[in-house]
Amino acid sequence: MELFTKLLTQTDIERRLSVPTHILNSIPFVDEDDRHADLQVKDSGGGLWTFRCICRDGAYAKPVFSKGWLEFVHAKKLKVDDKVVLFKDKDDNQGAVSYRIEVRREVLRLMGQDIWIDVEQLHLYGIG
One of this protein's Pfam families, by short name (predicted)? Predict the structure, then answer.
């Protein structure tokens, strides 16, 4: 199940990833007083990453991915306007929940359509 899709901003690639509030019910927070959770997220290349999701204090308790996110950004060489898609998958056999992330980059526009390629595949096309 897709949780959200977002085009990355400058803040997303330099500080933290701001994520939509509607995903809060899909995050296993430790408890109500300590609004953080460490998510194990698999990328499309099979790598496993840990992102800390926290809810900021204040009137707008918008969640962000903080710890672990910038390491992912640097490893994947992400850029502003790359598209991030986060999925939550449930194994029907065991009931286990897993998270999956895909990052796509727009590489060209062809016949009025944007062509996006997973950043894991850019090297296959000599792009990077």
Answer: B3
d(CA 106, CA 119) in angstroms, rounded, equals 10
Tokens 């803040």 sit at which residue?
A: 11
How are beta strands 97-110 and 36-43 bridged, if at all?
parallel
* pLDDT tens over the chain, length 128 residues: 899 999 999 999 999 999 998 887 888 776 666 678 899 999 998 999 999 999 876 666 788 999 999 999 999 999 999 999 999 987 656 656 689 999 998 877 888 887 777 888 766 666 66
Radius of gyration in angstroms for the set of CA atoms belonging to the chain, rounded to a whole number: 15
